[in-house]
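Standup notes, structure subgroup. Blocker cleared on the adenosine monophosphate input:
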Amino acid sequence: MSELAAIVSCVDGYDPDALPVDKARQAIRACLRPVQETERVALRAALGRVLAEDIVPAINVPAHDNSAMDGYAVRAADLDRAGESTLREAGAALAGRPYRGRLGAGECVRVMTGAVLPAGADTVVMQEMVRVDGDRVTIPPGQKTAQNVRYAGEDLKAGVPVLRPGAPLRPAELGLIASLGLGEVRVRRRLRVALFATGDELASIGEPLREGEVYDSNRYTLHGMLTRLGVEIDDLGVVRDDPALLEAAFRRAAQHADVVITTGGVSVGEADFVKPLTAKLGEVLFWKIAMRPGRPMAFGRIGDAMLFGLPGNPVAVMVTFYEFVRDALLCLSGRTDDCALPLLGAIAADPIRKVPGRTEYQRGIVHCDAGIWKVRITGQQGSGVLRSMSEANCFVVLEHARGRVEAGEFVQVQLFDGLI
Ligand code: AMP
Ligand code: MG
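Run returned:
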C-alpha cells in the first residue's frame, strides 16, 4: 500500500466509495504536513499570516499604573466612608505628562485617562462625582479602594509569552505586537497554491462561446476564496480533457506549489480517464463523499504537492472548498488552532427536504425575526446553480443521519460573511 492510502486507511470507518464528511476531513487532516519555512515581515504586512515565533514581552503593557478615567487620584485612606471628604488639589497629571511629586495626606491630583498614577495615590475618583471649589475637591462617600486604576502589566506582562507559533495574526494581534514596540515579526511563508480548471466544454473569458460550451467560472470563485485565505495563487488556466495536456499541467502546477487544486474531471464518468495519469505522477485517492453537493472528490499528492481534485459543478466547488480545502490550507499554513467554520443554530422557517445518509449543504438566508435567528432555503438547489450561493448568506448544514426537517426545528448554519 502506498503512503497516503496507508495513512487514510487508519481512519475508523474509512470507505472511499461512501465516505462520511467527518471521515473525509479526518483522512485529509492525517496527511497534512504544514510548511516549515519562515520569514520576517513588517508588522502591517503580517496581517493574515501565521506567527512563527514566541512573542514574549520585554516590557509591561501598560508600563505604569495609570488612571482609567478623567478624575482625581487620591489615597483611599483619606476618604471618609460615611460622609464627604474634601482634599486639596496638589497638581495635575496628563497622559504622557506625569505628576512629579508624591501625594501627601489630604491631597489629590487631577488626572486624565492614561496618566501615570501619582506616587502615593491608589484610587481614582471620576470627575463627574466631585465638586470643585478653587483647589478644594469634595468627594462623596461610597468610593472603593483601587477603583478606576489600570495596573502595570495588566494587559501584557514582561516575560510571560503572549502569542505562540501557529497563532493567526489578525488586527488584534497586530495591535498587541505593536503595543510591545515590535515593528517586525517572524511568520511562516505563504502557502503556494496552483490551480486549473479541466473540461473540453470550457471557454475562457474573452473567447466566443461555441455551441455546447460554458464559460469557466470556477477559476474565478477559487481565485476569490483563495485570495481571502492569503495564499499565493498560480492560475494555470483551462486545460482540455487530453492526457498529454493534463499531464503537462499537473507537472507544471506541482513544480513550485504546495497545493494543487483542480476542478472537473472527477465525476464517475471522467475519473477513470484521469486515474492512470495521477497514479503516474503521484498518489491520488478518488472518493465518493456522502454529501450533497460535492460527492466526487479526489485527494492526494502530485509530486510533492497535495492535490484537491474538486468536482466541476460550480456550487460543488464552493462547498468542497469551504468544507475541506479551506481548513486544510489553514493547517498547511501552520495554524495550530481549530480553524473549522463554526456551526450556529437557527430555526427552519419552512420544511426542508433531506434524505438520511449524507450531509447536505443547502444554501440559505438566515435572518433575525423578533430576536430569533431563522433560516430559509434559497430557491433552486442544483449543484450547477451558482446563483443559489450568491443569494445565500449561509449554508444550512443538514447532518448525515437527519431526514426531512419540519418548520420550527433547529438546524445548523455556517455563515458566509466574515469567515473567509
Ligand atoms: P465535471 O465534474 O467535469 O463532470 O463537470 C460537471 C459540471 O460542471 C458540468 O456541467 C460542467 O460543464 C460544469 N463545469 C465544469 N468545470 C466548470 C468550470 N470551470 N466552470 C463552470 N462550470 C464548470
Ligand atoms: Mg469535465
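Discussed briefly. The chain has four domains: 3-37+189-332, 38-60+154-188, 66-150, 344-415.
Next: hand off to the docking folks.
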